[in-house]
Write a structure and sequence with these properties.
One of its GO terms (cellular component) is plasma membrane. It comes from Alkalimarinus sediminis. Residues 14-390 form the Cation/H+ exchanger transmembrane domain. The protein is an alpha/beta fold. Strand 2, helix 20 and strand 3 (444-446) form a beta-alpha-beta unit. It is built from 26 helices and ten strands. The radius of gyration is 28 Å and the shape is elongated. The relative contact order is 0.10. The termini are far apart.
């Protein structure tokens, strides 16, 4: 390996990391900047030539990357969650997907002159959207809970299902090359049978190994990834190109197998996203040839217009029949369907395969799919917020609170806020805390609240503030800095902790100044937990002209700790250090009140 090769590989890593960081700072889908980075490195400056750099390894790298992407996506496909999110999501994943597939196939066949085989494959590829493009858009637009839940779960579930559809179409095309219908059906059926059977067996075996702790903790992530890649290679050896179906089924089995800790595997994927997936996007974009795009003429314009203005609206409105969605909600859903990473990776993978088997027009797949990705991401990212405001489907006020920690302190405070119709979400890595919160009917997220998995799966609809009330100092600090970039200054609150503040003041002093010290300088998690364990109660009290704030304080003395102030208009404001409490007639106060000390009766006789 020459020094120039090492330099190019390092450059891909650095550029991919820079694109991810810029996307995070600008609150844009990372896919957009990664594609632009690859285009500048490849066709613009002619700096990166993936075919020359990787030679015969290019196809295996793309193939393995797609396998990892589909495996990770299928790990999120829990059938119970699909059922919980109603008929609309199920309809979009069936009726909506079929409408998009049919429309894209017809338009690409007649507008671009593709063969029916390639047109059908293109239609299957572009049915996917994906959380990597949907979630950043939802964070900026903040639509109502109905829209947010529908788009989020459609994006999560459509990735493995859409990719599975593309795999099956591809297998049908490849198996049909001999021209014998019987051979075609046999090859197609054997691919489905092997992929389903081997995927279920491998998923069960890996799930059993994880559940029974056959692997030590430090080997579970690496072992799961290695096992998945081994199963993928074995499946391809037994039946040509059946591996993608196998790993998808394997992930679905793991996601729905009881007692299997898949969250750690999903969190491990975050590192792969930067090192592997991001680099893959740059490599694929660097292979785009502007001359190939120019040769397509006006055909891609008609294809994109049909996808945006015909396929998506028709799919949404047909899927919404019988639901209680308003026309405004259906109109907004009809506009939002950006394409993401799976579409790009799968198109590159299948284009290579079909070209090598004599399908000359398969070379159009890559530039055509990338044009669809770039156009939909740019147009819909720029227009989603104005459209949501015009249709009045944005959240009017993100007044809810995300609790970092689902401990007893968080649970008791959250219950007090719910009584005032304040949205809450409790997050924790402790299953016991999550279990207790669920028993009290509190909305929870089980996992690391600053992870990519939380970013894609935690429902923050109506949430605009953060309360870091975890007993773990490092988690509080990380969560504080993470959510400052999402919710901005004045909406992130943390309990006082001398060691945390001292450490933060040296390393992140400027950033830490943007946080608010919750409930007072001397109020710590240990203090609150101790008071609740000593039978302290959280109460809501309304002030009046006869019962003022001073009267309230005089009544309870040093047993009183005021936590929140609620205005007559319903606005809830946490009490913070160095800020005087202003509450007048009509205001309500949420407070912790310690019980009066038990009086000791003197029974001694004089």
């Amino acid at each position: 390996m020459t020094e120039n090769t090492l330099f190019l590989l390092a450059s891909i890593g650095v550029i991919s990391l820079l694109c991810q960081w810029l996307a995070w700072k600008m609150k844009l889908p990372a896919i957009l900047l990664l594609l632009l980075g690859g285009i500048f490195m490849g066709p613009v400056f002619d700096w990166l030539d993936p075919d020359a750099l990787f030679n015969d390894l290019l196809f295996p790298i793309i193939s393995l990357s797609v396998a990892v992407i589909l495996f990770e996506g299928s790990l999120t496909l829990e059938f119970k969650e699909l059922k919980e999110h109603g008929r609309m999501v199920r309809n979009l994943l069936s009726i909506g997907m079929l409408v998009t597939w049919f429309t894209a196939t017809l338009v690409s066949r007649f507008a671009l002159g593709l063969t029916w085989e390639v047109a059908t494959l293109f239609g299957a590829i572009v049915v996917v959207s994906g959380p990597t493009v949907i979630m950043p858009l939802l964070r900026v637009v903040r639509p109502t809970s109905n829209i947010s839940n529908i788009l989020k779960w459609e994006g999560i579930v459509i990735d493995p299902i859409g990719a599975l559809l593309a795999v099956l179409v591809f297998e049908f095309i490849v198996s049909g090359k001999s021209g014998a219908l019987g051979h075609t059906l046999w090859t197609f059926s054997s691919t489905i049978l092997l992929g389903t059977t081997l995927g279920c067996m491998a998923g069960w075996l890996l799930g059993l190994a994880l559940r029974q702790h056959w692997l030590p903790q430090f080997l579970q992530n690496a072992g799961s990834l290695t096992f998945m890649l081994g199963v993928y290679a074995l499946s391809n050896t037994l039946q040509h190109e059946s591996g993608l179906l196998t790993v998808t089924v394997m992930g679905i089995w793991l996601a729905n197998m009881r007692g299997v800790p898949v969250d750690d595997i999903l969190e491990f994927k975050e590192s792969l996203s930067v090192l592997l997936i991001s680099a893959l996007f740059i490599i694929l974009a660097a292979r785009i040839e502007f001359s190939a795009i120019a040769d397509l003429g006006w055909g891609p314009v008609w294809v994109i217009l049909a996808l945006i203005f015909i396929a998506r609206p028709a799919g949404v409105w047909l899927s919404a029949m019988g639901t209680n969605l308003t026309w405004q909600e259906k109109t907004f859903l009809s506009w939002i369907s950006p394409r993401g990473i799976v579409a790009a990776a799968v198109s590159a993978l299948f284009a290579f395969q079909l070209e090598s088997q004599g399908h000359g027009d398969a070379a159009i797949l890559i530039p055509l799919v990338f044009l669809v990705i770039i156009t939909t991401v740019i147009i819909q990212s720029l227009t989603a917020s104005p459209l949501a405001n015009w249709l009045k489907v944005s959240e009017p006020d993100s007044r809810g609170f995300l609790f970092i920690g689902a401990n007893q302190v968080s649970r008791e405070i959250a219950k007090a806020l719910i009584k005032r119709d304040i949205p809450v979400m409790l997050s924790d890595t402790s299953y016991e805390n999550i279990r207790l919160a669920r028993m009290e009917n509190l909305p929870v997220y089980f996992g690391n609240p600053v992870s990519e998995h939380a970013e894609n799966h935690m429902d923050l609809t109506g949430i605009g503030n953060v309360l870091a009330i975890s007993p773990y100092r490092q988690l509080n600090t990380l969560a504080t800095f993470h959510y400052l970039d999402l919710f901005s200054k004045g909406h992130v609150f943390g309990l006082s902790d001398g060691e945390t503040e001292q450490r933060a003041s040296h390393q992140f002093s400027e950033k830490f100044k943007e946080t608010r010290t919750l409930f007072g300088e001397k109020v710590t998690y240990a203090m609150l937990a101790s008071q609740l364990s000593q039978k302290a109660s959280i109460r809501t009290t309304q002030l009046s002209s006869e019962f003022t704030l001073e009267d309230y304080r005089a009544q309870h003395g040093n047993r009183l700790l005021i936590l929140f102030v609620i205005s007559p208009q319903g606005k809830l404001t946490p009490v913070v250090a160095d800020q005087e409490i202003k509450a007048e007639e009509g205001y309500e106060l949420i407070s912790i009140i310690r019980p009066e000390p038990e009086s000791t009766e003197d029974t001694s006789k004089n």
